Amino acid sequence: MTIKNLLLGRTGVIVCALLMTGLVLFESVVPPWAPYFIIYALLALILPVFLGAYNFGQFADVIKQWWKLILAVFFIALVWDQGICTFLQDKLLGLAGKAQDPFYSLSAALVMLSEKAGIKFGISAEAAMLLYAAFVLLWAPVAEELFYRGYVQGALRKDLGLMPAVLMSAAFFAVRHMTHFVFLTPDIPWFASAGWAVSTFGFGLLMSYLYEKTQSLWPPVLIHFAVNIFGVMFSL
Fold first, then answer.
1. What is the mean pLDDT of each run of 10 residues along the chain (236 residues)?
2. How far apart (Å, rounded) are the C-alpha atoms in residues 1 and 97?
């Protein structure tokens, strides 16, 4: 059995996703570049390309055929990510007097993460946040869709069927986002981390649906990028 066949099999995909989750957890804490995750970021791009585990298709054809669905899913994703899981959550936390508490508020937790990273690297919290924003805008839309939808979902679908593949892809995607805050040990904001997991799990389900429907990564990549732009704009 070749390495490609091994990594594209059910066991290989699950083990690889677990190892990648462990890697990003490790990189968020131990290496000199923590909380940034350089090796994981590279592998998330390289592995799906090496395995050919993705489908893009012709950009113009995909957009022409599916533009209405793309706009509809973008609106739902934006409402979910920035409306329900950010704006509404912040309002509810404000009513409870927890809006500025990083243990509860994702926004406050990300600020604390940037402050701690800035102290480590001898830069301002704003500069640390800009480095994070660069990851979010330049790397995440492509690499995360390649790895979680193209590779994990695509390969598991062949062995396990659609729903298990979608749920596992979204779950790994959600857990990966939680690992960022381990850098803040022992002050890990568990409530904010759990909220981010719920947010990204729902977003992952939407991207999985769109990938399955269009059979192209172009729509998930575009929506991921567009939603992240709004996230960065509101967080800076």
1. 89 97 96 96 96 95 97 98 93 93 94 95 94 93 98 95 97 95 94 96 98 98 97 79
2. 58
